[in-house]
Design a protein that fits this description.
Distance between the termini: 132 Å
Bound molecules: 2-acetamido-2-deoxy-beta-D-glucopyranose
Strand content: 35-45%
Largest sheet: 9 strands, mixed
CATH architecture of the largest domain: Sandwich
Number of domains: 4
Shape: elongated
Number of helices: 6
CATH topology of the largest domain: Immunoglobulin-like
Radius of gyration: 41 Å
CATH class of the largest domain: Mainly Beta
CATH superfamily of the largest domain: Immunoglobulins
Structural class: alpha+beta
């Protein structure tokens, strides 16, 4: 550090006239990535290079002289992250490569280059950017949630709803800063009623970039069990498509230049994925296939989601309905046996009445078969009459 200050002081005091000061160059660096801070000087012998962070004590970022990197006084924050293009220094390239850029790296840097001829100061301002890389939008129980994260600078979130903006009941946005200084953002939109045909569009943007997620609600669909159903999606030439079930189960993914990946548990249910992205699904039973299907298309600047609720119609031979079928059977059995018992009693009653006349063949009245339920009701009252009525 003292050595560096020595160089700077010497420059300032003795070589003031010869120092070239260049205007600041701004460099935008991607968070987590590598970045080159440009610096060019007139090459000559005895090259001395110093990269200095212009903050507080003007920390040493990277030094070079005697044709070697000199990192003895390097600020620990930059340890292992800096390098020069050694093979190009002799040609006047003093640019600094900085790896794993973080938010603390933002600020002004000095590139000091000294040769036997003259000295030069170049200033570079480093700005860190973390773009909106994806926006997720989901609908669960009349609540549309839009989320994104790892963004810098601070983003904003805006909604647009069509064709019924009046259905929006409540709309809130939360921004949270993570421990690296990046922002997570989430917006929640509550709708008035069970919306089945709107399109929700959520946009996350800051001064540098914007990204959208659009969700179209497809009218609910129905299917019978043990049959095929075509779930529509309109990818129109795009090759990054993902189908998911109940929001967090991936069914399949198709990406440009890659094999289509179908999750193991879905393989026997997927009959086809068309060019346009529509999914031909084999529905086995309601328990397995009923739910929300989502087709997500990923474009350069947006996500496009189709949300489909699939309802599976009841199969009369399915386990659940077998119980209902059993109940119906028992009830019918009871009714039939009731009728039979009634008829038998009726026969006996008539027999008692007709023994004297000995005409047992005319005992069955025609109306018995026409109104069995009426006679069922009679059954409870008539035998009493029979008991008391007969002498
Ligand atoms: C220095 O060299 C690097 C690597 O080739 C290059 O990316 C950079 O633009 C050069 N800088 C200048 C100022 O010439
Ligand atoms: C959605 O509604 C269903 C039934 O009303 C409930 O069981 C479920 O927990 C709700 N989900 C969420 C995320 O609120
Ligand atoms: C959401 O709320 C903001 C501010 O409260 C408002 O400006 C905006 O129009 C609302 N958006 C929708 C879709 O209701
Ligand atoms: C995803 O599924 C698991 C169970 O498989 C569940 O516990 C979790 O809450 C689900 N997450 C979301 C966001 O729905």
């Amino acid at each position: 550090m003292t050595e560096l200050n020595g160089v700077l002081v010497r420059t300032a005091v003795f070589l003031m006239v010869e120092v070239l000061v260049q205007g600041d160059t701004q460099v935008g660096c991607v968070f987590g990535g590598s970045c080159v801070l440009p610096c060019h000087f007139q090459p000559n012998s005895d090259t001395i290079l110093h990269w200095v962070r212009m903050k507080g004590n003007n920390d040493q970022v990277h030094s070079y002289y005697d044709e070697l990197d000199q990192l003895g006084h390097q600020d620990p924050l930059y340890k292992g992250r800096t390098s020069l293009f050694h093979d190009q220094i002799s040609g006047g390239n003093a640019s600094l490569r900085l790896a794993r850029v973080n938010l603390q790296d933002q600020g002004r840097y000095l590139c000091y280059a000294s040769t036997s001829e003259y000295n030069q100061e170049t200033f570079v301002t480093l700005i860190v950017r973390a773009a909106v890389s994806r926006v997720d939008i989901v609908l669960v129980n009349n609540t549309v949630t839009c989320k994104s994260g790892g963004i810098f600078p601070r983003p904003q979130l805006t909604w647009s709803v069509s064709p019924h903006p009046a259905t929006v009941l409540q709309n809130t946005t939360e921004v949270h800063e993570d421990d690296q200084g990046l922002y997570d953002i989430s917006g929640v939109l509550t709708t008035v009623y069970s919306d089945t045909e709107s399109t929700y569009c959520c946009s996350v943007q800051n001064e540098d970039c914007a990204r959208k997620a659009r969700m179209r609600l497809h009218p609910p669909m129905q299917s019978a069990p043990k049959s095929e159903v075509l779930l529509p999606c309109d990818a129109s030439g795009l090759d990054d498509i993902t189908w998911t079930f109940n929001h967090n189960q991936t069914i399949l993914r198709r990406q440009a230049g890659q094999e289509e990946v179908v999750e193991t548990e879905w393989q026997q249910h997927i009959r086809d994925l068309s060019e346009s992205g529509s999914l031909l699904l084999y529905v086995s039973s309601s328990a397995q296939s009923e739910g929300t299907y989502r087709c997500t298309l990923r474009y350069a600047d947006k996500e496009d989601v189709t949300h489909i609720e699939l309802k599976i119609l009841q199969d009369p031979f399915e386990e659940g309905s077998l119980v209902a079928l059993g109940v119906i059977f028992v009830v019918m059995l009871a009714v039939i046996s009731g009728i039979v018992i009634f008829i038998i009693r009726r026969i006996k009653f008539k027999q008692k009445k007709t023994t004297k006349t000995s005409e047992p063949k005319e005992m069955i009245p025609g109306e018995t078969s026409l109104f069995p339920l009426m006679y069922l009701w009679y059954e409870t009252t008539e035998p009493q009459i029979e008991e008391t009525g007969t002498p």
